[in-house]
Amino acid sequence: MKKLVLLFGALLVAGCGEKSSPEGSESASEKPTPPSEDVKPSADSPEPLISDADVERFAKDAIDTASPPADYTGWTKIVSGGRLRELMQWKNGKPDGPSTMWHENGQKSLETTNKDGKQDVLETEWYENGQKKSEETWKDGKADGPATMWHENGQKSGEGALKDGKPDGLWTMWHENGQKQAEATFKDGEQVSGKYWNSKGKEVETREEAFE
To answer: Looking at residue 132, what is its pLDDT?
Structure first.
């Protein structure tokens, strides 16, 4: 999965997690355990694309595979450790509709929507503790629009915009304690200027000093 960290290699910033499929899927005959109800999402979590009731209903009829037949229309699921880890809607062999993934502890990890095989909506990720991790706007399969990242403690870690999958314009980064870490301007995905601060709020000369 698209990683904001790849877009910010110049800033050495940890961004979104990768949307790799959970490993060790169980057999299709095993009934998955729905997402855990005792793990609560953060207060700023948006309304789910798939309600809890629909998750159980769709998962019941979904086929257990990450690669359905070329003409498949319906739902697929991935089950690992007896828990539902991914639920995705398909149309004519392409991802088309809501897609949701869960952490091993049952907390939602990612939610997005596909259209004709490409992402085409706001993508949201969460940490295992329920805190929001990132939000990216997608259009026709590419990150395009506002993007925001958070540290696991809830402090905002980065904010800016993407254009055709590349950072564009001003990006601002913060340390976990809330101190500003960097301001960088991008053009066509390349960094053209930057200023850096350490975790104590002191401006420093290099990115290495800011990211120590």
So the answer is: 96
What are the residue boundaries of the structural domains of the chain, listed by start?
A: 4-17+24-210
**AA identity, residue 141:** G
Whether the full predicted model's pTM is greater than 0.90, yes or no, is no
* DSSP code, position 33: B
Domain 4-17+24-210 belongs in CATH node 3.90.930? yes
Handedness of CA 160, 178, 153, 182 (dihedral sign): positive
37 or 154: which carries more pLDDT confidence? 154
Structure-token pair, residue 136? 């990216």
Give the C-alpha separation, 28 to 58, whole Å.
Answer: 14
Nearest-angstrom CA–CA distance, 212 and 203: 13
Helix and strand tally (H, E) in the chain? 3, 14
What is the token pair recorded at 111? 């939610």
Give the phi and the psi of residue 4 in degrees, each rounded to 5: -60, -25
pLDDT tens-digit profile of 42-84? 445 456 778 888 999 999 999 999 999 999 999 999 999 899 9
174-209 as b/e: b if 16+ CB within 10 A: bbeeeebbbbbbbeeeebeebebbebeeeebeebee
| pLDDT band at residue 162 under the 50/70/90 scheme | very high
CB within 8 A of 35, min separation 6: which ones?
52, 55, 83, 84, 102, 106, 107, 108
